[in-house]
Amino acid sequence: MFIRLASKSLLNRKGSALLTIMAMSVSIFVLLGVEHIRSQSKESFNSTISGADLIVGARTGSLNLLLYSVFRLGSPTNNIDWKTYQYVSANPKVAWSIPISLGDSHKGFRVMGTTTDYFKYFSYGKKRQLTFTHGKPFAKVFDVVLGSQVAKTLGYQLGDKIVLAHGIGKTSFSLHNNSPFEVAGILSATGTPVDQTVHVSLQGIKAVHTDLKKHIETYGRALTSEQLSELHPKTITAFMLGLTSRMATFGVQRDINNYRQDPLTAILPGVALAELWQMVGLLENTLRLISGLILISALLGLSAMMLASIKEREREIHLLRVIGAPAFFLFLLIQLEALLISFMSMLIGTTSLYLCLIMTRDLLATDFGLHIGLNILSYNNILLLLLVVSATVVVSTIPSFTAYKRANQSV
């Protein structure tokens, strides 16, 4: 009965109540959205790579190396000599190595040259290995393996032919038309930049940038050992290392950074990620502050609306007192009305956020590489909703106390 009375009271003032619900819904949408995207972005970035102990590139900043080698963002400052890569990989403390060559693209998706060791040793999340939805790793020079998002967005299937483009722009006038690649495999979804990557062999990268006339006739067949030796790369962009022991990490890192034949930078992925979050921490706090201020303004609007309605409800208050309602009953009634508005706002705000995430999920993954989950009721967001409820009780205390005083005066 108490809830029914509060509901009918709000319906009598449905215009102002509806506007207040809309304002609070928007503030809750922003508050939960900022927190959810922030936490999901961190989780997405942190799960991108888990098996590599070191990432090595030309002398540059650790963040720049991490971004272009793992997240396919930005460009390298220089390349690494192939002999340097072979020298570092031959270290007895190195268990495996994955070379990376960047620079080309296909319809806006980055192309990465590597070896079949990439599919064997690269891992993401909690050391989860790459798996294939269709096909297998590249075996020929002109084979290509697509990330799941590339295949889904462009509608490619096994056996389709694709043409790479020079540069990383979505539109390119420098196409390698003489050397089409054939889709040999499609990777399973990982929720990482792997999904937006076109994978080819290092020999394939070299072939499209050399005189192809002597290689075109070999398309569709395995090359001879002599022809393969001609296609060995002279330089690569970066490489990942897995070590035989974690104890050797800092020693190998120091040796690589002090290597005099080629200026190199070796980074620990986890340390570089921590540096990245430290840099964007100010932006995170700013977004949190803005969303918090929006919520505070909506709550103050709620309090103002409830307070303004007290004067209009003097007859209602007097009638309730006449039929025997205690003054404290009026206090609780106003509190309950504010809570009903708050609960309606939370329902609308969370539902709207969920629907927006469903509609923009693919866009965020394709254009920004952000894989945002749909579980918006995380631990942090539940705490935020409880905070909204508590704040509602606090801000509605003023109109509730005003109604309590009016009730005592109407006796």
Describe this structure in words.
This protein is α+β, with helices and mostly antiparallel strands and 411 residues long. It has two domains: 2-45 and 276-409, no CATH class; 54-267, no CATH class. It contains 15 helices and 15 strands. The chain has helices at 2-12, 14-46, 62-70, 82-89, 117-121, 148-154, 202-208, 213-216, 225-230, 249-257, 269-312, 314-322, 327-368, 379-395, 397-409, and strands at residues 54-58, 80-81, 94-106, 109-114, 123-124, 128-129, 132-135, 143-146, 161-162, 165-166, 181-187, 197-201, 235-236, 238-243, 264-267. Strands 1, 3, 4, 7, 8, 9, 10, 11, 12, 14 and 15 form an eleven-stranded mixed beta sheet that branches. Strands 2-13 form a two-stranded antiparallel sheet. A hairpin with a 3-residue loop joins β5 and β6 (128-129). α2 (14-46) runs antiparallel to α11 (269-312), α11 (269-312) runs parallel beside α14 and α11 (269-312) packs parallel to α15 (397-409). The longest helix is centred in the C-terminal third of the chain and has 44 residues, at 269-312. The radius of gyration is 30 Å and the shape is elongated. Mean pLDDT is 81; it is low at 216-221.
